[in-house]
Design a protein that fits this description.
Strand content of chain B: 15-25%
Strand order of the largest sheet of chain B: 8-9-7-10-11-13-12
Radius of gyration of chain B: 26 Å
Structural class of chain A: alpha+beta
Low-confidence stretches of chain A: none
Distance between the termini of chain B: 41 Å
Largest interface: A-B, 68 and 59 residues
Distance between the termini of chain A: 40 Å
Number of helices of chain B: 16
Oligomer: heterodimer
Radius of gyration of chain A: 26 Å
Strand content of chain A: 15-25%
Shape of chain A: globular
Mean pLDDT of chain B: 80
Number of helices of chain A: 20
Shape of chain B: globular
Largest sheet of chain B: 7 strands, mixed
Number of strands of chain B: 13
Number of strands of chain A: 22
Helix content of chain B: 40-55%
Structural class of chain B: alpha/beta
Low-confidence stretches of chain B: 1-10, 217-221, 385-389
Mean pLDDT of chain A: 93
Order of helices and strands of chain B: EEHEEEHEHHHHEHEEHEHHHEHEEHHHH
Chain lengths: 629, 461
């Protein structure tokens, strides 16, 4: 039977991607349905209870800059906050927080339930309803059909999941939840390219059985950083420390002795796991010269005793897990509350997606999250938001939008996925971003909020505060540019001790701030220069913009250079083999990747500038050369 | 308003030699793009009047006059490419033109044009008829293939070793810097220790070495290697002497006179060529001669072109591939071979150039000098002097330009590290440095870098 109402946007899945997707669509005024197999797991953190980190923190700030939820939720659910790389430059600084699973999840669920335009319904989604090459709705396990103008699939690990503990394995999503077998089977019948990935988790421990006194405590930063542009320290719940301990040679011996029953090393697992998040057995085999590995002992929350020992992800048999855990300092009497496991799952080749995350094969169908081969809540949330906003635009008959590589880590993420695909669960790193100095946590709002406002994603309150900040920055930069000092100016008495070389010629305060050794706050203590801005977000921005100016300009130049054919479209059904002069290898690569634009084509490994030239000449000759909007 | 509100347009300015290198008395450097007028100011001291030929001095970055010639300026869209175009027509040989080009591409935001890029630009800007698409595609194809061949030649010997070592060192350094940035929780904060600083200094020192050599012209003038090979007493040494105009090699009528490799540099239209004389190839019981023959083979394998000398009094008219299959089996695939039939004065065959059995063949007499000019002209042709704008010089200039840019970024990276302790800026300088080096050795992506990091350090919670 058909459900009585029809929707603009239907989001299938209530994880981090589904949450951001449905909220984005609803914020944009679309009548939105969030279809989940279990309302009680909305916003659940299925892996380690933490948000942010290098590259990931950047994504969270970008989600926030577009009015998304993740930053706000972790501000209310975080129990230990740190700024990573604080000793390094602002571009690579990143916020990370340990989360209380329950607080986080409850915040998300509460937020979803109160979102205007959003309907939540609990039923497993079994099928897509198609009209030719277009999706027009979904149907559920009990045969209920929902009509929707666009559909976002965010079904994560639940697609044909296979859980491994030792040589035993069984079907499942995250431990304790069923896998979406019916939907997986249905999608396998469609023309998508499907492959398999693998990931894993460590055994969880009971805090009461651990000896924290022999571990190194790792407290959060004080004052605690916040994630959201609108966040306050008073949003944070009680703060508690994490701990660090290490594996030892005995641990490693135990692991080696169990390898004959490891699904990884006996070839039972075929999926490819991430290079950067290896299981403990992998670490020991690949880096046999290291006789100790770090373990971060992370509390799962304020109201639970469960501990997430980050660093010993494993799929070894339970008896080996037990022994290896108990060989670790502080874990001698540990009680395992849940065994570690590896999970294999399906993902869809993201090269079959457009830049908007819409399928190239099925109109109005969008994919976001782990289904696209990524890992991590932040990567999922970022895609969810972009898919959600594009599904919303589509349902309203408007142009799609995805930030470019020069605008956001979100842009890097989606461009990497849709252009290059991935062979391992894709995780964000700052080294993936060629414009890293521009893509900072501190300017996520400046990069994205204006566009977010235009799309209808940003609330009045945020927009007002953002506009105020921008104005403060602009006025302050003008002010300090107009403040001059000369060699004999009375201010030099206070100023010169702050400088490596005392000033020898006239300089304005902006010049002074450009010097590596000066700080804005220090300069403002000088009577002739101060008082500075009270708006700390704005003054930080002034300082960074001035200090990085040369590098920012250079990156902007580099971006300009690449703009030339970046958005020149290649027709979707283009036959690359028609271009004479292209080598077979180049034709094969282009055919496999199906780049939407010349810019994307040029980023495919092995595509030479000459090949791009030939492509351009061919498109021109056949009158196909046009820029996207 | 913000750094993210980006302007569009603002295309690149490209420059290259527009005439076939070495041919004739005039060489043209063409510059196309928005900075063409800026280039004019820097090289000529003024922007020439639009579409008016002006006779001016061409200056280098130190204001020294390199050459004098005609300068022409075309304003967009009324130019060959549809962009602002400056043409510098000098009469210097390749070395002078190279100096001029070097100055032009050292100007900020001006880069070397890719092979065929001017024509491509003209085509895309509706300056050429659509029916010329095939011709343009062919041009892009053939000239980039030739460029690739020239680049390969440019990358031989010591230069190649230095460049590859440099690339490896930069990758290694980046691995440490990027790992420290992306994995601060992994107890691998290399930025804090002195290793990176020391490594960086060592790399800069080694680039300094290469650059110094390049400055002296040692590398740029290295030239192409033409190896004369053949049976004993075919007249190889006589040919060397005839080409170089000197008595470099001892010539006798005794087989096996030349026992070691002799090398002589000659210039054709100012373009240097290494002519290498080798021991005659034969089975020899003589130990010293055997070593000479092995060396001869080594030279042949590294050559840009082999001149196979044949004594026309003994072997005229036969197909060399038939009577000497071992030679053709042993030479590297795709090696250009020219058959030189010597002693035309004795055998009485007519001097001249023909194509026999698929190989260019030149009949001459090294003794009398008759026909040697044909060989010189032929060598010019082989060296990419004709028919293409991408000669060996261009390839080497590309490589040196890339190396110079890489050097600049290494130096400012070191400065950033020492005065700011700014790891992320050092990382940025190294990234750009690598981009320049990639132009020489091929691409190295951020994913490749991550792969290196993950295989070198145990990373991951």
């Amino acid at each position: 039977m058909w459900y009585q109402d029809s929707f603009d946007v239907i989001v299938v899945g209530g994880g981090h991607a589904g949450t951001e997707a449905s909220l984005a669509a609803a914020r944009m005024g679309c009548k939105t349905l969030l279809l989940t197999h279990n309302i009680d797991t909305l916003g659940a953190m299925s892996c380690n209870p933490a948000i942010g980190g290098i590259g990931k923190g950047h994504l969270v700030k970008e989600i926030d800059a577009l009015g998304g939820l993740m930053a706000e939720a972790i501000d209310h659910g975080g129990i230990q906050f740190r700024t990573l790389n604080s000793s390094k430059g602002p571009a690579v600084r990143a916020t990370r927080a340990q989360a209380d699973r329950l607080l986080y999840k409850n915040y998300v669920r509460n937020y979803l339930e109160n979102q205007e335009n959003l309907t939540i319904f609990q039923q497993p989604c079994d099928d897509l309803i198609m009209e030719n090459d277009r999706v027009v709705g979904v149907s559920t396990q009990m045969g209920l059909k929902f009509k929707g103008k666009s559909v976002v699939l965010t079904v994560g690990t639940f697609l044909a999941g296979q859980i491994h503990i030792g040589l035993n394995n069984y079907e499942g999503g995250r431990a304790g939840d069923p896998a979406s077998q019916n939907l997986a089977d249905r999608l396998r019948d469609m023309p998508f390219r499907i492959d398999r990935l693998k990931t894993g988790t460590p055994p969880r421990l009971d805090a009461r059985s651990l000896d924290f006194s022999v571990m190194q405590a790792q407290p959060g930063d004080f004052p605690t950083p916040t994630f959201s542009f609108m966040g306050k320290q008073s949003d944070h719940p009680q703060q508690i420390p994490c701990y660090i301990t290490h594996t030892n040679t005995q641990t490693h011996d135990i692991i080696r002795s169990g390898l004959d029953r490891s699904p990884m090393y006996t070839g039972v697992i075929e999926g490819v796991g991430p290079r950067y998040c290896p299981s403990i057995e992998d670490k020991i085999m690949r880096f046999s010269d290291k006789d100790s590995h770090q373990i971060f002992v992370e509390p799962e929350g304020l109201t639970t005793h469960e501990i997430y020992p980050n660093g010993i992800s494993t799929s070894l048999p339970f008896d080996v897990q037990m022994n290896l855990v108990r060989s670790i300092k502080g874990f001698e009497n540990a009680h395992i509350t849940r065994p570690g496991y590896a999970i294999e799952y399906d993902f869809f080749d993201p090269r079959d997606l457009k830049q908007t995350l819409e399928s190239k094969f099925v109109e109005n169908l969008f994919f976001a999250g782990q289904i696209n081969g990524t890992t991590g809540y932040e990567e999922a949330g970022a895609q969810g938001l972009i898919a959600g906003l594009n599904a919303a635009q589509r349902s309203q008959g408007k142009e799609g939008w995805t930030p470019g590589r020069e605008q956001a880590y979100m842009g890097v993420l989606i461009d990497d996925l849709s252009t290059l695909g991935t062979k391992e669960p894709y995780r964000m790193f700052t080294s993936r971003a060629e414009y890293r100095l521009l893509l900072r946590e501190d300017n996520a709002d400046i990069r994205l909020t204006e566009k977010g406002r235009e799309l209808g994603l940003v609330s009045d309150e945020r927009w007002q505060r953002f506009s105020e900040k921008l104005e403060n920055i602009e006025q302050e930069r003008q002010r300090i540019r107009g403040l001059w000092v000369q060699k004999d100016h009375p201010a030099t008495e206070q100023l010169n001790p702050m400088l490596k070389n005392p000033i020898s010629k006239d300089a304005n305060v902006e010049d002074l701030l450009r010097r590596p050794e000066t700080r804005y706050d220090d300069l403002m203590t000088i009577e002739a220069f101060g008082p500075g801005l009270n708006d700390k977000q704005a003054s930080e921005q002034v300082e960074i913009q001035v200090k990085y100016a040369g590098y920012i300009d250079r990156q902007l130049d580099e971006i300009d250079k690449k703009k030339r054919h970046e958005n020149t479209l290649i027709p979707g059904d283009f036959d690359f083999s028609k271009i004479s002069g292209l080598s077979n290898e180049v034709v094969a690569k282009l055919t496999e990747a199906r780049p939407e634009t010349i810019g994307k084509a040029s980023r495919i490994s092995g595509i030479t500038p000459a090949a791009i030239s030939l492509l351009l000449v061919y498109l021109k000759k056949h009158g196909l050369l046009r820029k996207s909007a | 308003m913000s750094e993210s509100s980006l302007s569009t347009s603002h295309l690149e300015t490209i420059a290259a030699q527009a005439t076939p290198p070495g041919r004739g008395g005039v060489g043209i450097i063409r510059i196309s793009g928005p900075l063409a007028s800026l280039v004019a100011e820097q090289v000529l001291g003024k922007v020439p009047a639009v579409r008016k030929a002006e006779y001016l001095s061409f200056r280098d970055e130190n204001q020294n006059v390199i050459d004098q010639g005609i300068a022409l300026f075309f304003k967009a869209p009324n130019s060959f490419t549809g962009e602002d175009v400056l043409e510098l027509q000098g009469h210097g040989g390749p070395v002078i033109l190279d100096m001029l080009l070097k100055h032009v591409v050292s100007i900020n935001k001006v880069r070397m044009a890719r092979p065929g890029e001017f024509s491509e630009q003209a085509f895309l800007n509706d300056k050429l008829d659509l029916t010329q698409a095939e011709a343009i595609a062919d041009l892009i194809n053939s000239s980039s293939e030739q460029a690739a061949r020239c680049a390969l030649h440019s990358l031989q010997g010591d230069f190649s070793k230095l460049v590859h070592q440099l690339v490896d060192d930069v990758i290694h350094l980046r691995m440490y810097v990027e790992a420290a940035i992306d994995f601060p929780e992994e107890e691998i904060d290399f930025l804090a220790d002195s290793k990176i600083n020391n490594d960086l200094k060592a790399i800069i020192a080694s680039v300094d070495g290469v650059m110094a050599k390049a400055q002296q012209g040692a590398i740029i003038r290295e030239g192409m290697r033409v190896v004369i090979a053949g049976r004993p007493n075919a007249g190889k040494s006589s040919l060397l002497n005839a080409l170089s105009g000197k008595e470099s090699a001892i010539v006798t009528d005794i087989e096996g006179t030349t026992r070691d490799v002799l090398s002589e540099q000659i210039h054709i239209d100012g373009m240097p060529l290494h002519i290498i004389d080798t021991a005659g190839l034969r089975e020899s019981p003589d130990k010293v001669e055997q070593i000479g023959i092995e060396r001869a083979w080594k030279e042949i394998e590294q050559a840009d072109r082999v001149l196979l000398m044949i004594d026309s009094t003994k072997e005229a008219g036969d197909n060399p591939k038939a009577f000497w299959p071992e030679f053709f089996e042993r030479i590297p695939q795709n090696m250009g071979v020219t058959i030189v039939k010597n002693k035309a004065d004795v055998s009485g065959i007519a001097t001249g150039q023909t194509l026999e059995h698929g190989a260019p063949t030149i009949n001459l007499s090294a003794m009398t000098g008759e026909g040697v000019d044909l060989l010189t002209a032929h060598l010019k042709e082989c060296m990419g002097y004709e028919g293409s704008t991408e000669g060996g010089f261009m390839a080497r200039r590309r490589h040196l330009a890339a190396l110079e840019s890489a050097h600049q970024h290494l130096v400012s990276g070191l400065d950033q590290l020492e005065s700011f302790v700014a790891g992320e800026i050092l990382a940025e300088e190294l990234r750009i440095c690598q981009q320049h080096l990639n132009e020489i050795t091929g691409e190295f992506t951020s994913d490749d870098l991550l792969g290196q990091i993950f295989s070198s350090f145990c990373i991951g919670k």
